[in-house]
Amino acid sequence: MDRRTGMERIQQLAAGLTLLLLMLGDAVAPIRITASVSVSAAVTALLTYGFLLLLPAISFLTRGSKQKSTEPRQPRKVPKILWIFLAWALMDTVTHGTGVKALQNISCYFLFVGSIQAFSRLSEKYDIRFAKAVVILGWLRATVYAVELGLDGFGAAGVFPRRSFAIQALLIMAVMIPFGGNNRWCRLLPFVLLLEITLSGSRTAMAVGAVLLSLSMRSSGVVRLSRTAFRAALIGLAGYFALILSPDLQERFFSGDLAWNVQGVPLNAEGRAILWSIVTEHAQSNPWTGFGAGSASHVINEVLGTQDQPHNEYLRLWHDFGYIGLGLWLIGYLLLMVRCWQGTRGHSTGGAAPHYAALLALLGIGLMAITDNVFVYYYAMVPLGAMVGISLAQPGPDTERRSPTRPAACGRPRTNWESEGALLGRELRRTTLKGS
User: Of the N and C termini of the chain, which has fewer Cβ atoms inside 10 Å?
Assistant: First the structure.
């Protein structure tokens, strides 16, 4: 088997695995191997072992391929500071002792960085095939959850746990919003998913989904700001009427643990205020270096006697790895967002869609991390890393304009979103015709 064939097989394996995780989410969460080890922990371990084998294989198969390529590419690399973060996290954890939770958390951080590294070596035209698969997968998930909502009503949690469903739905929305173009099924899917997120009762995901859907990916300057403001106003108005007309939503927001107060309006904190105060108080005793991976959950267990998470990833990073670890992670994460944003600039052939998809996904997961434990969910971090890696694999706008196989742009470079949507629409119609 030559290098090209080997690389294609690895691409198919990595993409298939990512789509499988995007489809299933944390459906295996209720299953436990022992009292202290869940199937989720075992899956995380297997994925980590797989990526430890996969990354050297990709590096070997792609060695020297850049010089032989007929079309120049300048893939941007994973920020080195994220690898430094992984080294710091591992060293800090070994210093303070390890456990199953510690290894699981570090594995999820590694899976995020490792999946970016793996997918950044993929073909630059891989994004369309990935997006086509996400459309089909997204409608499948939406259909299954619609059936669950019909059977169980508001907050349904059958095949998909509602938190898992909301996180996966946000990632699918991030892909579909910029790739939608002129295809009505692609344009409709984000709205359907946002509606289902709302009916799932996941409050943070509702707000994040509304933010993502409000952002206009078309045009630029004043036109983009106007579109974004108009979308935000419509979505905000729809959310307001949904809140005042739905007793279920009112119960989710305004009953229970009313520890939060926003402009005189009490909000349900669901115990987060207590968890945050416990973790914050303990973190202050060693604020610079922290106590190692998994220590935040361990402190909560000692104080409350329950197996719980901090429900704030930035607070967890501070407690576990100190200001040093938190700073390394934030700088690396923001650098990824900057590089994805840079990828959107100056494209003249509709090549900005995968960069915007990655940027929206990073934004969405970053916002979810304020009230959730999303950074230690393998089913979120691997697909997120894949989307960012696909963005980094694309040629930069300067490379695109210099390419001898592409026509030079006339006038000011612009993003042609219609061409992306039309291309994805043709791919979907071709698949439909073959199936019929």
Answer: C
